Amino acid sequence: MVEYGTFDPETRAPEWRLPAGSCDGQVHVFGDRDRFPVRPDAAYVAYDATVEAMLRMHKTPGIDRGVIVQPTAYGTDHSALIEALATAGSGYRGCGRVDDSVSDDQLAAMHAAGIRGARFNFHPKLTASRLAPDEIRRTIKRVTELGWYFKLQLVDLDPDEVTSLFDGVAADIIVDHMGPLQYHRGLADPRFKKMLDLLDAGNWWMLLSNGDKRAEAEGHPWDDAVAYAREYIRRAPDRMLWASDWPHPIRPVPVPNDGELLDLFARYAPDEATRKQILVTNPAKVFGFADGGGDGRE
């Protein structure tokens, strides 16, 4: 197993004040290694990324809500995620991994625990977690019946290979990590145009995360991410989300402090109204948070 960088445990406050109810749209957490064993073929593990450590990270900048996404290391065993949601409380939702092996009873238990989405991962380093197109179609049908959203990891992939599977799907669909962009291709990149066109459909969302990771060649302060994020926001401000992607998995380079990532987001969205929409209003809608910080669970 490849050793990757770990998160900075000393989260610093960003240089601006987050609005109340701010949401981190994607974090991963790990449970006790003895109680929650990972898959033998896990691409990475981060046992120090506990739910308690995640909550400490969120406390410093004033993040009140979050979405805990199932790590690929656990496959479809959501035991650790369900326990983490119980610990984190009503301000947190879950996003799971669903395939044919997940029973209807398991789906019901996941829903009761606060899981509201299913993620399909197409990362080139996580091929073991990919599903065949027919299984994806079956999963889409089952998950849609629960009223969940879908989440797509499309890094370094021609998006047409995947997005066509969702033609006609009315559920919300979130694209992770600003889409399958390579910044050296510029704003004329056909993949970027594809992402912008999808946003016009009305049910596609963009997660403004990993802008720093995509911009590794340039390094801090990751200037080449800003133009893409601002264009996404200009195109569909009501369907933008933000995430730290803590603890920053599959990253062999120095890992940024999460306060730095919030300052990068502030450059994406310089005005306070847009920041509040992306951090508070939009995630409340797609993740199902009730007004005033309630849990919004059925």
TrEMBL record:
User: Example GO molecular function term?
Assistant: hydrolase activity
Any idea what this protein is called?
Answer: Amidohydrolase family protein
By its UniProt entry, which Pfam families does this protein fall under? Amidohydro_2
Domain Amidohydrolase-related: from-to ranges: 23-289
What InterPro entries does this protein's entry cite? Amidohydro-rel, Aro_Compnd_Degr_Hydrolases, Metal_Hydrolase
Q: Record the organism.
A: Amycolatopsis acidicola
Q: Note the superkingdom of the native organism.
A: Bacteria
**Gene3D superfamilies recorded:** Metal-dependent hydrolases (3.20.20.140)
